[in-house]
């Protein structure tokens, strides 16, 4: 813990390396001098005595009055009902459009699945037929006492 403390060397700044920037003044927007305007009437001076005995004198300031709000026109109930009915009609039309789109897409999917099944099943039948004729063996089928055995009809 009693190690000697090493100090960094002081940094020397050279004055010729420092560049000083001075702000440029902004010219005024208008060149005519501003003349103060006196109010139309001089307000009364009011003095107020504080509880500790001091007197404060100054002008009374009137509170700012908000501008009167223009009355909103009354909307009739019929106009509101018509507007809401139009929104409801648009929502129903959009829902029916989505429903018909979904039904058409589902029908197309089912149609494609039927075609896929027919292609796969037809390919399986073709493989069965062509592989049976190549080996010379057939399938035995009994039709009304007639026998088809090894691709020959015995009746």
Question: Helix and strand layout, with pairings?
Answer:
Layout: E1 45-49, E2 55-59, H1 77-135, E3 141-143, E4 146-149, E5 152-154
Antiparallel strand pairs: 1-2, 3-4, 4-5
Explained architecture:
By secondary structure, this protein is an alpha+beta fold. It is 38% helix and 13% strand. The strands form two sheets. Strands 3-4-5 form a three-stranded antiparallel β-sheet, with no helix packed on it. The protein has a two-stranded antiparallel sheet with strand order 1-2.
Order of helices and strands: EEHEEE
Give the neighbour order of strands across the main sheet: 3-4-5
Mean of residue pLDDT values: 77
Distance between the termini: 119 Å
Structural class, judged by helices and strands? alpha+beta
Round the Cα radius of gyration to an integer and report it: 51 Å
Query: The biggest beta sheet, please?
Result: 3 strands, antiparallel
SS field, number of helical segments:
1
Please give a quick description of this structure.
The protein is an alpha+beta fold and 155 residues long. It has one helix spanning 77-135, and strands spanning 45-49, 55-59, 141-143, 146-149, 152-154.
Which features does this protein show?
single chain, 155 residues, alpha+beta, three-stranded antiparallel beta sheet, two-stranded antiparallel ribbon, 1 helix, elongated
């Amino acid at each position: 813990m009693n190690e000697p403390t090493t100090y960094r060397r002081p940094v020397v700044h050279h004055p010729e390396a420092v560049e000083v920037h001075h702000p440029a003044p902004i010219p005024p927007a208008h060149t005519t001098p501003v003349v103060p305007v006196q109010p139309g009437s001089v307000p009364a001076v009011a003095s107020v005595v504080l509880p500790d005995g001091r007197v404060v004198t100054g002008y009374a300031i009137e509170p700012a009055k908000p501008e009167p709000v223009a009355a909103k026109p009354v909307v009739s109930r019929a106009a509101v009902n018509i507007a809401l009915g139009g929104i409801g009609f648009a929502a129903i039309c959009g829902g029916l459009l989505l429903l018909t789109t979904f039904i058409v897409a589902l029908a197309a999917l089912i149609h494609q699945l039927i075609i896929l099944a027919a292609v796969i099943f037809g390919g399986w039948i073709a493989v069965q037929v062509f592989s049976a004729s190549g080996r010379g063996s057939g399938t035995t089928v009994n039709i009304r006492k007639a026998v088809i055995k090894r691709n020959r009809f015995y009746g």
